[in-house]
């Protein structure tokens, strides 16, 4: 009997040891500073990490602890956001400026430390202060724990594809000028694939991303839209792609020849090199949902896939990309994805809803200050943006999360409206003749949530100053996309469209142009969690809000104190 007990104890110890061994501490150092690059016939100074653009690729496994020491040697205030990471009980590491931390000031440092819990797939990291994420970004790859496998055949190779934007100017100056004048920022000069613009741009024949493949092999492309202000179509000539995950959530396999991807989103696709040996362009250009209303970069970036054995003199085949305003193609892709039920880290749809919200999202106006030159849509106005007619302004002096933890008043309020203050025909352009409706007051309003409560939110686009597809990103949680459509949301009929079995899960939803999307999430993580439009032109003018999630009933569901080196304002 004693021998049996001893053997059982040994087996238990081995299990624990194996579980512990499968989790590691992964440590990186980020030196953020100026970097001079040659692009598009220009020498341009950018802000970059460790002298590379894009920045370092981080690889971890589910269960690992990630530690990143950030040294700010740039001339700008800085934070880093780990886009899509849950940050369970580690909200101090989430990174949005003045929401979870004060910025890391020039010459200072901060260590981000957090555990990767119940997540695997493609995420990314980026600056979350000013417009620095134009060049301060990189991939965050989360593989399964050792011994676990993907829910699809193991690919021959994994390849990050980071889609970005490039300006022949200082992006911080561009944003500051736009904010001062109350207009949109200047459009980018190029798009990029893994930092390279491609051969359609001047002085860029040799600045094109090249992927070498072997015929018959299957590759996992981890596609990330790191662009500041543009949704993108991505295609590879003569090749199909099979979607297997979005935003680090596994999906049922979906075969497509085009990927639509909004800023902040990630899409994992399997690509089989099954075409005749040769060279094939991959290409990306804008999906411009506000075509004819909002200026955008009309250029095309491309890289090239070269099969092993291809003749170098052969001209690569070029894919036919969708039209800039091809909303049907974008919507078909966005709305046809579904979750892999029973797959790793899959969560069923919460049925009981505790907190219902109907939230309008779109542009707005603010009055131009006296003795100021403004270039807003109307005389005497500046461009603004709002959710439920409330334009978000971050606090100064203390972050929202510090105010939450230390119970400091006057930093934010918890009276964000659960429905619009005025009901109107949201997607009818005639509302623009009702001038008072276009102005949104500024404030730092949040929604207070009970721990573990379920939230259902209808996100309704408005036609104020024009309809547009808005990518909305929620920090700290994934959500189920219950349904999406065009026009005004109608609860009497549109609830019948809810997918209660296998809706896609995301952290960033591209709300259809002139339409709506319904999401659900469980507020099971105490702290302050930002929600905002991931178009950089719209975040600083107010298209944001935040959720304040109360602590749970036990120490294991209570936000711990801030780290000692948390930056101070």
TrEMBL record:
EC number(s) recorded for this UniProt protein: 1.10.3.2
Record text on cofactor binding: Binds 4 Cu cations per monomer.
Entry keywords, A to Z: Apoplast, Copper, Glycoprotein, Lignin degradation, Metal-binding, Oxidoreductase, Repeat, Secreted, Signal
Matching Gene3D superfamilies: Cupredoxins - blue copper proteins (2.60.40.420)
Gene Ontology molecular function: copper ion binding; hydroquinone:oxygen oxidoreductase activity
Origin: domain of life: Eukaryota
GO biological process terms held by the UniProt record: lignin catabolic process
Signal peptide boundaries: 1-23
Any one Pfam family match given in the protein's UniProt record, by short name: Cu-oxidase_2
Enzyme class: oxidoreductase
Subcellular location per the Swiss-Prot or TrEMBL entry: Secreted, Extracellular space, Apoplast
Catalytic activity, as annotated: 4 hydroquinone + O2 = 4 benzosemiquinone + 2 H2O
Keyword check for Secreted: yes
Cofactor(s) annotated in UniProt: Cu cation
Database matches in PANTHER family: LACCASE-7, MULTI-COPPER OXIDASE
Functional summary from the UniProt entry: Lignin degradation and detoxification of lignin-derived products.
Name this polypeptide is given: Laccase
Organism of origin: Hibiscus syriacus (Rose of Sharon)
Phylogenetic lineage: Eukaryota, Viridiplantae, Streptophyta, Embryophyta, Tracheophyta
């Amino acid at each position: 009997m004693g021998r049996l007990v001893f053997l059982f104890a040994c087996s238990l110890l081995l299990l624990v040891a194996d579980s512990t061994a499968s989790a590691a501490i992964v440590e990186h150092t980020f030196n953020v500073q100026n970097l001079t690059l040659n692009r598009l016939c220009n020498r341009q100074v950018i802000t970059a990490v460790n002298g590379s653009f894009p920045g370092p690729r981080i690889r971890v496994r589910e269960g690992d602890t990630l530690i990143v020491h950030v040294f700010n040697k740039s001339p700008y205030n800085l934070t880093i956001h780990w886009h899509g990471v849950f940050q369970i009980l580690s909200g101090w590491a989430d990174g949005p400026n003045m929401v979870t931390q004060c910025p890391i000031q020039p010459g200072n440092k901060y260590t981000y430390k957090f555990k990767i819990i119940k997540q695997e797939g493609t995420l990314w990291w980026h600056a979350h202060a000013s417009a620095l994420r134009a060049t301060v970004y990189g991939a965050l790859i989360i593989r399964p724990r050792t011994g676990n496998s993907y829910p699809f055949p193991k690919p021959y190779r994994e390849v990050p594809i980071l889609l970005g934007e490039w300006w022949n100017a200082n992006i911080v100056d561009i944003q500051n000028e736009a904010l001062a004048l109350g207009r949109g920022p200047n459009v980018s000069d190029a798009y990029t694939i893994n930092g390279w613009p491609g051969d359609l741009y001047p002085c860029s024949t040799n600045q094109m991303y090249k992927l070498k493949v072997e015929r018959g092999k299957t590759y996992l492309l981890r596609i990330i839209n790191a662009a500041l202000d543009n949704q993108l179509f991505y295609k590879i000539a003569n090749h199909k792609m099979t979607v297997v995950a979005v935003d680090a959530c596994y999906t049922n396999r979906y075969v497509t020849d085009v990927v639509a991807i909004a800023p902040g989103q990630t899409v994992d696709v399997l690509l089989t090199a099954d075409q005749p040996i040769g060279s094939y362009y991959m290409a990306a250009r804008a999906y411009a949902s506000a075509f004819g209303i909002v200026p955008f970069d009309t250029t095309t970036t491309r890289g090239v896939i070269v099969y092993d054995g291809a003749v170098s003199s052969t001209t690569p085949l070029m894919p036919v990309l969708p039209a800039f305003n091809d909303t049907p193609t974008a919507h078909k892709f966005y709305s046809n994805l579904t979750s892999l039920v029973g797959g790793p880290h899959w969560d069923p749809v919460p049925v009981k809803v505790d907190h219902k919200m109907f939230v309008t999202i779109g542009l707005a106006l603010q009055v131009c200050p006296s003795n100021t030159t403004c270039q807003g849509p109307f005389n005497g106005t500046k461009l603004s943006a709002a959710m439920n007619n409330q334009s978000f302004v971050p606090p100064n002096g203390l972050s929202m999360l510090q105010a939450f933890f230390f119970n400091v008043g006057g930093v934010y309020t918890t009276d964000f409206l659960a429905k619009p203050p005025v009901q109107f025909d949201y997607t009818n352009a005639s509302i623009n003749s009702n001038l008072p409706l276009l102005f949104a007051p500024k404030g730092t309003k949040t929604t207070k949530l009970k721990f573990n409560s379920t939230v259902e939110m209808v996100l309704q686009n408005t036609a104020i100053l024009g309809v547009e597809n808005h990518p909305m990103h929620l920090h700290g949680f994934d959500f189920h996309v219950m349904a999406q459509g065009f026009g005004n949301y109608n609860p009497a009929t549109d609830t019948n469209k809810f997918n209660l079995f296998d809706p896609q899960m995301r952290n960033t939803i591209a709300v259809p142009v002139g339409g709506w999307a319904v999401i659900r999430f469980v507020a099971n993580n105490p702290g302050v969690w930002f929600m905002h439009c991931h178009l950089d032109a719209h975040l600083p003018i107010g298209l944001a809000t935040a959720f304040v999630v109360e602590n749970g009933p036990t120490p294991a569901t209570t936000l711990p104190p801030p780290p000692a080196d948390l930056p101070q304002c």
